[in-house]
Write a structure and sequence with these properties.
Blueprint (H helix, E strand, L loop, with lengths): L3 E9 L4 E9 L7 E4 L6 H14 L4 E5 L16 H5 L4 H6 L4 H18 L4 H9 L2 E5 L20 H4 L2 H18 L10 H15 L6 H9 L5 E2 L2 E2 H4 L2 H16 L14 H5 L7 E6 L5 H20 L9 E5 L15 H10 L5 E7 L15 E4 L5 H14 L9 H5 L6 E6 L6 E5 L12 H11 L6 H7 L30 E4 L6 E12 L2 E2 L2 E2 L3 E8 L6 H5 L4 E2 L5 E2 L7 E2 L11 H16 L2 E5 L13 H10 L1 H45 L2 H4 L8 H37 L6 E5 L6 E11 L1
Parallel strand pairs: 3-10, 3-11, 4-8, 4-9, 5-8, 9-10, 14-24, 15-21
Antiparallel strand pairs: 1-2, 1-13, 6-7, 11-12, 12-13, 14-20, 15-18, 15-24, 16-17, 18-19, 22-23
Helix pairs in contact: 7-8, 7-13, 9-11, 13-14, 22-24
Amino acid sequence: MGAKLYLGRAFDPGPRALGDRFEVDADDLTTHGLIVGMTGSGKTGMSTVLIEECLKAGIPVIAIDPKGDLVNLALCFDHLEPARFTAWVDDVSARRDGQSREEAGLAAAAAWSRGLAEWGISAGDVTGYRAGHDLRILTPGSTAGIPLSLVDRLDPPPAETLDDPEEFRDQVDAVVTALLGLVDIEADPVRSREYILLHAIIGEAWKAGRALTLEGLIGAVARPSFDRLGALPLDTVYPERERQDLMLALNGILASPQLEAWRQGEPVDIDRWLQAPDGRPRLTIIYTAHLADRERMSVTALVLNRLRSWMRRQAGTGELRCLVYMDEIFGYFPPTANPPTKKPLLTLLKQARAFGVGVLLATQNPVDLDYKGLSNMGFWAIGRLQTPQDQARVREGVQGALAGSDIGLDFDRLMAGVQKRVFLVHNIHRGAPSLVHTRWAMSYLRGPLTRDEVGRIAAERGMTLESPQAVASAQGARPAGVQAPDAPAHAPAPAVAPTVPGVGARYWRRYGGNLASPCLLARAAVRYRVGSALTEETTRDLLFPLSGAGSVVEALEGDPFPGDDLDLADSPPTGLTFGDLPASLLGPGGSKEIERALRSRLDDRLAVTLFYDPVSKEVSRPGESAGLLALRIRGTPEHSRKRATLEQRLQAKRMQLDARRSERKSRRFEKWVSLATAALSNVSIFTGKKRTVSGAGSVLTKNRMENTAEARVEKLEAEIRQLETEMEDMATVDPARFEERLVKPASTNVALIRYEIVWAF
């Protein structure tokens, strides 16, 4: 039996009580697994705990991180020191909770200490766990972590791969797909002339034992060593004139500063990803959150294909040799489409068990999952799901996976007990499914980390390329006669800040790290209009992160930080290194690009929620609370004037009411006099001395006059009641009457004051 992985405790949803420890035998994961759960279900926590347990057991882990959640595994602090938490708490969240950074750090450290203690884990256990494994974060296309060379080393695969036609084709396919993905060309194996040509060129070179450089590949596109593709002449399928477009695209990989990082760094070497030189198990995280979708797909497909090739060269075993984890597989393993990641994933799920390789996948979108793969999985954990359709899809997959077994599963009853951090867990090696509450993670789950934050981790952990000797030893499996090119050096972050001509720069100690990331600080004078009310002019400072943005316009689409109270320095501290600015800002037109973007987009980012008082027609200032608005309304001269005006109107209406009441009284008296006169004048009718009725018209006239006077009185009484209500409202200014309005300023009410680059570290 393998090591026991402590995931949590059994959970009884009735009394919400925890039961016995829930453990999984590590070797059970050779039958692979799936974790499904919506946002907020605790899916990331479950995955983190499982990876932590594997590393504690000495089992290496390769994790593909397309969202930035898994790099939280690097935030594991010796002795749970509060200062380490303080360095990583989120400023915006702390401000929202009314805390300083130090207070938020102390609170996080206390929460982690308390939470771990409740699950029987001490600060010493955390320190031992951290010391027991090695961590590396690979960042393809970036030097934030350890760069991963994907296109500069087109070397032949090992001899056993050359002798396996299917494996050889898959390896060529992975390289061609990655190359075309970088230049935004669809790699269709049947319809894409670019794919077919590159596959033929690289395949021919590798079969001859020749390594290719990018320069050599571009030359081969111009003048291939063959003159036919399939049954047709090369110039019929792909004329030389049209091949120039492909040559220019590939040359862009060599010439573009943005793509330089793809040509440097370490090669994809699975053996080195699994074990540190000192023998400790490794956690290797391939961080792809900073990449575009096509680049991310190409990188993931290449890594999975190399994993598959490496796996087939290993000796068979029933023990878990390593765990391969992929977070959020939405789009990588769909039920109908065939992205380049699907084939290697299916192969791993079908064959990896025999080689001791466990595959664990996670998703929050169960609809976009090929459940044929689930039939090859012996472990699954299902957290809270968002819709009934999601539950139905998972139920269908689970029942299909259990078809033919003697396990009875009341899926709906068990799923009713699922809640945050509680999962319906099934392990074919344990029997019936059960509800499990996951333990507290040893890693600080701060949330997705950006590329620059990964750079901070790499700097703090001292992550660099390993020695050339280690690289050379890892390349020992090359076919005879193939000379490996020199490993490119790791380009460190520059020690001098890049500049935008004509734009100033200042420095903000946000985390206290060694790597500074660029932001754009914009100050504007702004006024907001709600109805006829216009606020006073206020000054707003907004800070927009530039890391990962291709342009200022793209940066302005993100969420800004409030920049009003930043403690900015005019010079950087010694030893600070700097991230990259968008390339478009480095030329002479950089400042104009910033100004154009701010003038066209800043008004959208200045939208605020304001309080509007329908009584006084006053509107709050940005950041002003309802209570402060009420106090301000009561103290304004305008409020006093409005109240005095109301009092005058009320007094006038009351005087009018007195007059109308007198009028009503007299009209009523006149009506009764007229009625009595008419009655007396018509007495003779009853004695037979008079034949006609007289005075009726006068009575009706007097009655109409009384009704008119009554209506005037009622109208005035209603107006007075309304004025008295307004007077009461003016006197009390109850904030409950305020209306919240989301207000975007008109561009004519926004005046850009200044802007500058701020380096946050």
